[in-house]
Amino acid sequence: QIPDYVAKQDALRGKGVTEVIILAVNDGAVMMNWAKSQKTALTMLTFLGDPNSELTKALDLELTDPGPVSKLGPGRCKRFAMHVVNGEIKAVNVSEGPDDPAGDNDPSASLADGIMATMK
């Protein structure tokens, strides 16, 4: 998902997006190194950690399907994109399906084009 958002920064800016926040259930050090490995310096992407899944749970986006949980462990976040304007959630797209609870096979809902389709 990260390369997609980096590649589509101009289109996102055209929709009025000023920042893309990448959230994951990891600590700050992991998120910082992930950002470096994805070469996101000087982009509109900001990486934030949710080490205790507090925001993930508050948003009701915890991945609870036993398949992925058996591999990733509990407390992980679903693959999602959220459009927020001035603190108000305008849209939430979750990449998941009956046979694809983690959105691995079809992440399109949470890719840049998926969330941009919800923007006016």
Write the layout of secondary structure elements.
Blueprint: H1 2-7, H2 9-14, E1 20-24, H3 28-37, E2 45-49, H4 54-58, H5 66-72, E3 80-85, E4 88-94, H6 112-116
Features:
120 residues, two-stranded parallel ribbon
Describe the model.
With 120 residues, the protein is of the alpha+beta class. The chain has helices at residues 2-7, 9-14, 28-37, 54-58, 66-72, 112-116, and strands spanning 20-24, 45-49, 80-85, 88-94. The strands form 2 sheets. Strands 1-2 form a two-stranded parallel ribbon. A hairpin with a 2-residue loop joins strand 3 and strand 4. The protein is globular.
Offer a quick outline of the entry.
The chain is α+β, with helices and mostly antiparallel strands and 120 residues long. 32% of the residues lie in helices and 19% in strands.
Order of SSEs: HHEHEHHEEH
Residues in helices, as a percent range: 25-40%
Q: How would a crystallographer describe the biggest sheet?
A: 2 strands, parallel
Please report which band the strand proportion falls in: under 5%, 5-15%, 15-25%, 25-35%, 35-45% or over 45%: 15-25%
Count the DSSP helices: 6
Q: Uncertain runs with pLDDT below 50, 5 residues or more?
A: none
The multimeric state of the shown protein is: single chain
Structural class of the secondary structure composition?
alpha+beta
